[in-house]
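User: For my dataset I need records formatted as: sequence, then structure tokens, nothing else. Please produce one.
Assistant:
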Amino acid sequence: MQPDRNRIRSILSFTCLTAWMTSFPYEGKVLYLLLAQNGIPSDRWVIAAIVANFLGLIVCFLFVRSLPGAKRMLLITTTVCLLGTALIFSPSVELILCALLVISFSAGLFISAWSYFLRANTPAGSRMGTVAKTLAFSSLIMTFINLCAEYVSLWFATGLNMALLAVALVCVHRMDAKQAGPPAVAAHSAPEPVAFLQPLAALCPFIFVITINAGLMFQVIQPAYDSLGLISDIYWAIPYLSIILLVNRIAKKVDQPYLLILAISMLGFAFIAFAVPNRSVWSYLLVNTLLLGACGIFDLYWWSILGELLEFDRNPARLLGLGLGANVAGVLAGKLIGRTPLLTGSGVAPTLVGLAVVCLALVLLPPLHRLLAGMLQKNTFLVSLSSLPPQQQRATVERVGSIAGLSERENEIAMLLLKGYPYKLIASRLYISESTVKTHVQSIYSKLDIHNRTNLIERFCPDGTPRM
């Protein structure tokens, strides 16, 4: 029962924190109204808050290296965000701006540190559902708070934000950092290298490129429909929320490449529709539905990929921080591009930029998908194998090795190959030369009638789970 409670508290704390963040320091309506009320130029300080959030995301791993450390970070940052939000009521503009930067940075730290609890409390393979729930409900809460800020009172919306942070703080305080241990790969093979950096290096540019359109949306497209008032405020998050819940239900029935190509096509059509000089309600409904629907598919895709990759890094805050940092950097780039005079006059220039981003995403997608699919297949086996006691690991490899006639040395090398070791490290581990390792590997592949490491994994375990 306790792990289930931990998972619920973890999801609730993250949902509350992200709802607060997106309604206030990260492009939120509360932030824009606060800056306008104090006569502060919004563009400069909105961008400054985004930069502060980016820095928090990417440096968190320097301070958090364990589950208890992650809980301490969550407690500290939630408290800082709560106190900083209260400073909105301060008469000092300088104090308000300082608090804005501090809470934006703290929010980045919180999100990266939360990766430890996502990994500990949600099993691999089911993290898409957790991510979908947090994204959907935080968007719903954010929309409600934005409406309150716009049509009721800025101070009432701020009170709701503080209540969210108070709930998050209680949930974090009651989360058990000792119940759920680290994943199997960390528990049994902490010194072993896991090749997640290559797919992460491919995923981050894709996230960055595709998220440029989100920055254009914030900077150019949404302001173009501000005159519609309540309709645009209410409908803003509906396509995003709906598509996330829908994709989460059908994700296992539809191949991801098809969903991604659909999302990229939706982006293209959204920018083409925006190029038409018509800012009617129907134009808004079409553009917003296509644009936010595509954003929902992309967000769920890379969030879920990052969630699965958490298994392969001993410090998940580093991995999630880099991935989400690429997202924030893309939004920032889109906003900066959208501020150029060329893009503020009509819908044609933003359309050209948006279509260029779409074309680049189409170029990046095929090799990215192949790399991620191969990596996840390979490392799913690695996590499963490493979760076994050492004696069972050896038995798993020797069982197949004996059938193929592998020698004792070849069994040792096969084990290290399955665990992700490169040739150089295998040579160092076994005190032999790298050329000798290559010779043994060629012999292993020949005896098993295979050609590469992926084939080796498939031979030992076609379905991703070690045979016993």
